[in-house]
Amino acid sequence: MTEKCVLSCNDLHLEIGNKILCDNLSLQIEPGETWAVLGLNGAGKTTLLHTLAGLRQPDAGQVSLNKTDLTELSRHDIAQQIGLLLQTHQDPFPGKVIEYVLIGRHPYLKALQWESESDYQIAKEALTTVGLSGFENRDIQSLSGGEYQRMLIAMVLVQQPSIYLLDEPVNHLDWQHQHQILRTLCEMTEQRTCSLVMALHDVNLAARYCSHTLMMFDDGHIESGRTPEMLNTETLKNLYHTSIVQIDSQQGKMFTPM
Amino acid sequence: MTTDQEHQPHYAARQKAYLYLSLLLLITFVSFIAALTSGSLSLSFLEVISAISSDANPLNHQVIYELRLPRMIHAFTTGALLALAGALMQVLLRNPLADPYILGISGGSAVFALIAIALGLVGWAISLSAFFGALLAMFLVFGLARGQGSWSATRLLLTGVVLASGWGAIISFVLTIAPQNKLRSLIFWLMGDLSFADNIWPSLITLVIGIVVCLYFARSLNVLSLGAMQAQSLGLPLNRFRWQLYVVASLLTAMAIIQAGNIGFIGLIIPHLLRLMGLRDYRLLIPGAVLAGGSLLVFADTVARSAIEDTALPVGILTAAIGVPIFIFLLYRGVKSV
User: How confident is residue B311, by pLDDT bands cut at 50, 70 and 90?
Assistant: First the structure.
């Protein structure tokens, strides 16, 4: 994290089947920024994140990391800069929490190298961050849905990327852990000047934690900008096809569907 | 010491794993001794030692060097190759039920071996034919599963399983039209039989190369067992690694098949047994699989050739006799452990 890492896309065009998810999207994610990606189910949030991570080829346009096209970089190099939290997971083979989280160190180890003491320290710190310290030797199949999700977040933290792409990171999480983890992630973004892009369904989390918001409308057009300007009842109504009311509180604007 | 371990649970866990590996090494030695001492000419441990070191007793010397030692090495390498191939296949297909034969490589090689036997060929010609069959089966699955370029574990599994039943039909056909006097050796080949083997070097060299390659793959195997997308985002070049795995697993299987025919269950149960012992990290599971798979087959073969006097059973019967109960036990333990 010595160098600042900028993820950008140029004239990005994505479609699935015949549905256009986004057209001519150009944006730049600078260190220290926190982005929320909002949109209906199927609007393309996940597809966009996967494309930004280089797991999917854009249908047109390109994604670049520090001005280098992702397709010119090896998966190994990308993994040191971009960490992705997936929304869906395959059934795991049995294992212990610490064994799983340590796999996140893969991008930094050579083929026959074992994890060092410092790798273990990084893993333990990550587990503490997500509130799972003391769970090191738990069998992952004994974890609850929320605990499992937090373990996966710890795995991304252990990867120490400069850019975090998180697909619905608060899935299964209770209020305590939603806020604890988002707060930590945002502090980290500011201090270590990494950047964060999250697909979210909770507009209020976007309002509270994200400096920028990107909205994917279901007709394929996209709007993005600074969060305070982006979030208002009119835009949200267009985005979600639902009437929205705004509640002003001491914590700032809050939104709820009517 | 205990406080040390509390602070460093990972080291304690790895020490436990090394303990299990030492135990497996011990079991391997026991299986070697069992294989060298028992048989129609029963030798004591000391007689074996003296027969190995000198030819004072020419009969014992000959029995050890020309019969038991090569056969023991054969059994060990075959078991080890199958266990390694099984471990790779289970990760490649992300399926705990995968074994080295699941993609029809054994089917293809069996068809060609049977045809060779039915035509009256012997020795090396059978092995060569079987190896050609394995390669053919491998490239068929390879080519067909790739299709329009989309690639998934399910697609590979389906292609392999469907082709395997095709090979099965051809095997039945060959058995039906084969001359009566060849039937017994055909069936022995199908059930797994170590008495065909003569030259130990090809399989021994394959095993050594296989171990090195698998250890080199080991941490990537850990990563891939998380699932394809996750593995990619952790920096694994997914498609390249999958094809490497497929080719290596197929070659290991082919080598095992041409020396011993179809020997069931080793490739399936050994990786699971090791996972139950706590050797889940592939860097530990790989050496464990070599020792456990090898020694299991050495034990099974020893029993197979000495259990019933004057009758050598096909070793496949014994690995199945050991494997079926263990496997059912594993399934019975259910989702919790498998």
Answer: confident
Within 125-144 of B, beta carbons closer than 8 Å to A belong to none
pLDDT at residue A93 in the model = 75
Residue B150 covered by a domain: yes
Q: Closest to A107 (Cβ–Cβ): which among B225, B230, B235?
A: B235
CB spacing of A53 vs B225 below 8 angstroms? no
In-domain check, residue B338: no
Q: What is the ipTM of this complex?
A: 0.90
For the stretch B81-123, pLDDT in tens is 999 999 999 898 888 878 888 888 888 988 998 888 888 887 7
Distances (CA, A) of B263 to B35, B114, B219, B224: 18, 16, 28, 27
pLDDT at B148: 59
Task: Flag whether B107 is in a domain.
Answer: yes
CB-count burial class (<10 Å; 0-12, 13-18, 19+) for B12: middle
CATH of the domain at B157: 1.10.3470.10
- Among A223, A234, A231, CA closest to A252: A231
Q: Which of residues 184-203 of B touch A (CB under 8 A)?
A: none
At B85 the pLDDT is 94
* Interface with chain B: mutation pick from A65, A86, A103, highest number of B CBs within 10 Å: A103
Using CB atoms within 10 Å of the CB of residue B334, give its burial: 0 to 12 exposed, 13 to 18 middle, 19+ buried. exposed
Out of B215, B220, B337, name the one closest to residue A94 (CB): B337
Residue B267: inside a domain: yes
Write down the pLDDT at residue A1: 41
**Is some CB atom of chain B closer than 8 A to the CB atom of A120?**
yes
What is the total count of domains within chain B? 1
A137 contacts: CB under 8 Å, gap ≥ 6: A96, A97, A98, B9, B13
Domain coverage including residue B299: 4-333
